[in-house]
Design brief:
Blueprint: H1 4-40, H2 45-54, H3 58-69, H4 74-84, H5 87-96, H6 104-112, H7 116-128, H8 133-158, H9 168-183, H10 187-206, H11 211-237
């Protein structure tokens, strides 16, 4: 006789995998691109695997690879990646209400696999109802596994691509320009991006090494937050 618990668990895993495949489909080409860029920056496959396992954050990893390639200090890289990933605190807080009474071990395992995409899907499914925490966990780690495999595969692929071939040297710059273009969706984001550019140029002239990246991004992000709060207050009073 079939075990009802086993059948239920299998259904939860299948539901998580069904929700995860669009994310995995998007992660694979991006992970390959990151792996190729990392290989050109001098990272070995095991180093890329360690980064993907320990960091698991696409934008932060692209930034880290770029900073490694330019010889940035460890402190600058860690500080920048930390600030970029601070948004995970907000995402985790938003999902926490859907995990009452859950053990810390489960929460740690779930939080480890949280990304922008998995957060969006899980939050939507939880709000719609009928979404289980085990399905959510399956979604997170299916995406995680895809990311690790694709980034490591990209390093091996990069060994077959000659330096500078097909604009590989410009790929990282192009990737960040695309990310920037997608972020500029409101006047506030546009103003923040322009301020970050100006501050980067000014601090580059005065600060040694790559410290200007950390300083400019911190100041621009702070100014952007202040501008956003002022805009919201203005909308409430009008």
């Amino acid at each position: 006789m079939p075990n009802p618990i086993a059948i239920k668990e299998t259904g939860l895993v299948r539901a998580g995998l069904a929700a995860a495949w669009p994310i995995c489909l998007g992660y694979f080409p991006i992970g390959l691109s990151l792996g190729v860029l990392a290989q050109k920056g001098g990272l070995a496959p095991w180093q890329m695997a360690a980064m993907s396992l320990l960091v698991f954050a696409g934008g932060a990893q692209f930034i880290a690879v770029a900073m490694l390639a330019t010889g940035a200090s460890a402190l600058a890289i860690v500080s920048t990646v930390f600030m970029v990933n601070l948004r995970h605190l907000l995402m985790s807080s938003a999902l926490a209400v859907h995990f009452p009474g859950v053990s810390r071990r489960f929460l740690a395992l779930f939080a480890y696999g949280l990304t922008d995409e998995s957060f969006a899907v899980n939050l939507t499914r939880f709000n719609q109802g009928g979404w289980n925490r085990f399905s959510a966990l399956t979604l997170n780690h299916a995406a995680n596994a895809t990311w690790v495999v694709s980034t490591v595969a990209g390093v091996y692929l990069g060994q077959l691509v000659p330096p500078g071939a097909a604009g590989v040297d410009y790929a990282l710059t192009g990737m960040f320009l695309c990310l920037l273009a997608f972020q500029i969706s409101s006047p506030i984001f546009t103003a923040t991006a322009l301020l970050a550019a100006v501050l980067s140029l000014l601090t580059y002239l005065w600060l040694p090494g790559n410290a200007y990246v950390l300083v400019a991004s911190s100041l621009a992000a702070t100014a952007g937050l202040a501008l956003k709060r002022a805009w919201r207050k203005r909308e409430k009073t009008s």
